[in-house]
Structure formats: structure tokens, C-alpha cells
Automatic annotation (TrEMBL):
Keywords: Membrane, Transmembrane, Transmembrane helix. The keyword Transmembrane helix applies. The chain holds residues 454 to 735 of 735 of the full protein. Residues 24-280 form the EAL domain. This is GGDEF domain-containing protein.
Length: 282
């Protein structure tokens, strides 16, 4: 027939798999050289105070800008590097790049915006409860004021009850060296409120899922999360906000910071510096 026999279908399938595996293998092979060449770059996405009563902050998001392969997004390479353990090196590299940037802003007497950095839960599991010591070692090489860098951990790390002492040691470790701690993707999966009673956290990042297909219920939940966070003296960030209507709503609810395309996509550092200069209150 025109479509060919099942053999052809299989052949096509094999070829697709093979291409994917080729790509994976190539990305793996490129990793070390790319680290040395600074092909992994910090992009900064602004977090903006909707009421304008505090300066903007930013989240550091990695972009792999490869001279031959072009721009590669984290959704492609993070899962791959989580599988083979390279994520640990990448997380630490991104952290050091952020330290260097803050240090440079201070030396050049520029505005010093707070920046948050992501840590993979695979990295946490791999490195154990002393993980914060690796970060401290890097931090000590720069002059970074307290509270200016924030570590983003996802709530799934806090999942199991018997993980409490483990996670507590990590959070306390980070905070003892002047790093803030934020709970990323809060409310996405297993969000257990009881963990908030165990851990010292500086900020909650409400997951995007609250704001896509929102309804009356999700609005009430968001109001309650903001109130709870404030009672516990945490900042609240809404992420993935795309339209102005939601900004107005969150502003009225007292949400501290908003991150999303409504303000800006993640920007290369130079563009972020221009952006914050042109936007009042940043
Ligand atoms: P995340 O930490 O939850 O980051 C938020 C993601 O949402 C980013 O995707 C960001 O570009 C995207 N986003 C921001 N505003 C909007 C919006 O208004 N609408 C929509 N649809 N999306 C928005 P990105 O940069 O592709 O990063 C994806 C994930 O990759 C991050 O999720 C984070 O988990 C991970 N990631 C990024 N950089 C690093 C890193 O240096 N280390 C580790 N371990 N993970 C990282
Ligand atoms: Mg994040
Ligand atoms: Mg998130």
C-alpha cells in the first residue's frame, strides 16, 4: 500500500528514537566544553511589586547558547542532566555566575537586585544534607551581602515525613550563610501545609497552575495562601502571570511580587539592567 507495511512504520520509529538518542549523546558530549566556554548563560526574569512599594528582584534561569546547536532550553537538557548527575555541576556553576554578577554590580556601584537560583532535587538527593557547604565555599569567594541571593527549592523535596530532619539541615545551612530560601512551584503537587510548620522559609512561589483556568475557588485559595504566608512572615510570589487583569487581582490581594510574561520574558543580563532602569520602582 501507499503507507507501506508495518516494517516501514517500525523503521520510522527506530529512526526517531535513534535521532533523539544521538541528540542526547551529543548534548552530553558538549557539556564539559560548554561549561568552560561559558555557553551556559544566566537569563534574568524580573519579579515585580505590583504596588511598586519594593524594588524588583529576578530569577536566574539557565539558557544553553551553543555556537553550533543554537539556543537550547532547560526543558530539554535539565531532565537529561538529572538522569546522569551533571545537574550538580550545572547548579553550582549557575550559582557562581550569580555570585559573580552580584559582586560586579556592587563593585560597579549599580543597583544590586536580589536574584534567586534554582536547585534540582536530584542534586539535593545526590549531595545530601551537607550540600549547603558546597554553596558556602563558592559564596565565601565573593562579597555578597546577606539576603541578596535566594535558593529556590521545589516542594516535592519536602515530601516524605522522614525527610524532615534532612531538609531542615539543608535549609538551616543555607540560611546560616546568609542565603534566603524560597519554596518553588508551591501548590503544584503534594503541597503539604504541615511542612511549613517545620521549616524556615523566606518566600513562597505560587505555581502557575493556580492562574491558568482560574475559577472562584482558585481565587479563594490564592487569597488564603497569601494571608497564610504573611502570617508566617513569608513573601509571596505569583509566577507565570500573563495578563494585566491578573496583576490587578493579585495586587488587590496583597501579593508581594509578580513574575511572568506580563512584565517580561527572561532577559540576558545586559537587557535586564536596561529593563530595570526603564521601569520605575526597580
Ligand atoms: P521554574 O523554576 O518554575 O521557572 C519558571 C519557568 O516558567 C521558566 O521556564 C520561565 O521562563 C517560565 N515562565 C515565566 N513566566 C511565564 C509566563 O508568564 N508564562 C509561561 N507559560 N511561562 C513562564 P524555563 O526558563 O524554561 O525553566 C524551566 C524550568 O527549568 C524551571 O522552572 C526550573 O525548574 C528549571 N531550571 C531553570 N534553570 C535552572 C537551573 O539553573 N538549575 C536547575 N536545577 N533548574 C533550572
Ligand atoms: Mg524556579
Ligand atoms: Mg516555578
Amino acid at each position: 500500500s501507499k503507507l507501506g507495511g508495518p516494517g516501514n512504520v517500525c523503521h520510522f520509529y527506530d529512526e526517531t528514537i535513534a535521532k533523539l538518542l544521538d541528540r542526547e549523546e551529543r548534548l552530553n558530549d558538549l557539556f564539559e566544553a560548554s561549561l568552560r566556554n561559558h555557553d551556559f548563560q544566566i537569563y534574568l526574569q524580573p519579579k515585580v511589586s505590583p504596588s511598586g512599594n519594593r524594588p524588583c528582584e529576578a530569577e536566574a534561569l539557565v539558557r544553553w547558547v551553543h555556537p553550533q546547536e543554537g539556543m537550547i532550553y532547560p526543558s530539554e537538557f535539565i531532565p537529561l542532566f538529572e538522569k546522569n548527575g551533571k545537574i550538580c555541576k550545572l547548579d553550582l556553576y549557575m550559582f557562581e555566575e550569580v555570585c559573580r554578577l552580584e559582586d560586579r554590580w556592587i563593585r560597579e556601584k549599580k543597583t544590586v537586585s536580589r536574584i534567586s537560583v534554582n536547585i534540582s532535587r536530584f542534586h539535593l538527593r545526590e549531595a545530601g544534607s551537607d550540600i549547603w557547604k558546597k554553596y558556602k565555599k563558592i559564596l565565601d569567594q565573593y562579597h555578597i551581602p546577606e539576603g541578596i541571593i535566594e535558593m529556590e527549592l521545589t516542594e516535592t523535596m519536602f515530601l516524605e515525613e522522614n525527610q524532615v530532619p534532612f531538609v531542615k539541615a539543608i535549609l538551616d545551612g543555607f540560611r546560616s550563610c546568609g542565603l534566603r530560601v524560597a519554596l518553588d512551584d508551591f501548590g503544584f503537587a503534594y503541597s503539604s501545609l504541615s511542612m511549613l510548620k517545620e521549616f524556615a522559609v523566606d518566600a513562597l512561589k505560587m505555581d502557575r497552575s493556580f492562574f491558568v483556568n482560574e475559577n472562584d475557588k482558585s481565587k479563594k485559595i490564592v487569597v488564603s495562601i497569601i494571608q497564610m504566608a504573611h502570617n508566617l512572615e513569608m513573601d509571596v510570589v505569583a509566577e507565570g502571570i500573563e495578563d494585566q487583569e491578573q496583576v490587578e487581582m493579585l495586587k488587590n490581594m496583597g501579593c508581594d511580587l509578580i513574575q511572568g510574561y506580563v512584565y517580561s520574558r527572561p532577559l540576558p543580563v545586559g537587557e535586564f539592567e536596561i529593563w530595570r532602569q526603564e521601569n520605575r520602582g526597580c
